[in-house]
Amino acid sequence: MRRIPHRRSRSLAACALTLALGGALAAVPAAANAADGPLAVQYRTSSSGNAASQAAPWLKVRNTGAAPVALSTVKLRYYFKADSASAVYRYSCDWAVKGCANVTGTFGTLATPTATADRYLEIGFTAAAGSLAPGADSGDIQVRFHRSDWQQLVQSDDHSFGAGQSAYGDWTKVTARVSGTVVWGTEPGGPVVPPPGPVLFDDFDYTAHSDPRLAANGWFLRTYSGGPGVPGATWSPQNISFAAADGNSVMKLETSTSGTAASTRQTEIATSAMKFRKGTYAARVKFSDAPAQGPDGDHVVQTFFAINDLKAPMADDYAEYDFEYLPNGGWGETSNIFYTTSWETYDPNTGQAVNQHTVARSSHGGWRDLVVTIDDNDIRYYVDGTLFSTHGAAYLPERPMVIAFNQWLTDLTGQTSTTPRTYEQQVDYVLHVKDQVLTPAQVAAKVGAYRTAGRTFEDTVTP
């Protein structure tokens, strides 16, 4: 527990935002050998007997990602237990929407057999099968296999077999690989690769603070007065702008002052809906060590955070998770300092606070890849792909939150000049994947897939 009355005023403002607007599954650990899956596999059987003359796994593969997937890079594996060590099997394709000539079938042997699998049928595709657009599926792939001696084969002990699957449905016992990496399904004895979760992605491809798409896409630009920051300062949506940088659109948050409260303009943007809880939060943010113009020295705070409203002093269902950079110090610090902080609760009247924080007293100016993951066990903060801090289960969120960015001044004591100056924070994108923990590499891959597909916004997260 630590007392930080000045820092707490920032959270009060974000809570006021959620109050003004009126506005869970357990997170699934990512498999060690899995990418952030862009595919899902559906299965049904047309030979449902525990023993049969042939197995008939009918399959479909669906693109659940944001970019096209070349089918020639895709392999599906149906796992089974051989009826004997010497048994030989034959494959046939009866019909496929993509054409049986463009569907391949080969048998393989598992390096580590299990009680339900020591072989697999691998379905592949030729280049002529084409690609799957986002949201599209392959259509039916009706295949079968049998013993070369046409003896009965036993299916009831096969890993991928589902006797009750008389209609297509998602089936994690058949795996999908893209370029050799498992992106869907449960390998025999292996981990489950989670299906894609609901997502918020925004590339901030807007024209101005007045662009109607901002509100349509669920963003609120703050205008109301109050903390955090300099009493009497204005929260100005006009200080939020958009520009091109390195081939992408970026959002700019400007904070300006001439050394008085009346001249101080601060900025904040947040989601309108309080609907984000566990999962992965990510943003690429450019912190600034110096003002864009004018003299330096103000106690500026640059942020990316998730937060909900405080119902009462020391309420235990409050939650807040912060990345905060103070390039000129503040809150008793005399030079640049970077914080990650996980909040359990606080009392706005006394300044009493329950949180866990980690600091780095060094420059964090420039572009930074920020990721925070929240599951059932802990909160993990990453900076530029490296684990920065891990905070304990005592600080896990009980209720959903908003996602926000703001830039503001803690006070006017850092620089007493009346010369105008402007500080700038930039944001390249924001991503949230509900109820799933992604690695920083998986975050980068997911963002890259959106951009490859030319998709600048998606929000499938429901309250």
Automatic annotation (TrEMBL):
Originating organism: Streptomyces uncialis
Keyword Signal: yes
Name of the protein in question: Hydrolase
Listed transmembrane segments: none
First and last residue of the signal peptide: 1-26
Listed InterPro entries: Beta-glucanase-like, CBM2/CBM3_carb-bd_dom_sf, CBM3, CBM3_sf, ConA-like_dom_sf
GO biological process, one term: carbohydrate metabolic process
One MF term in the entry's GO annotations: cellulose binding
CDD domains, per the entry: Glyco_hydrolase_16
Residues annotated as domain GH16: 186-438
Keywords: Hydrolase, Signal
Annotated ranges, domain CBM3: 35-189
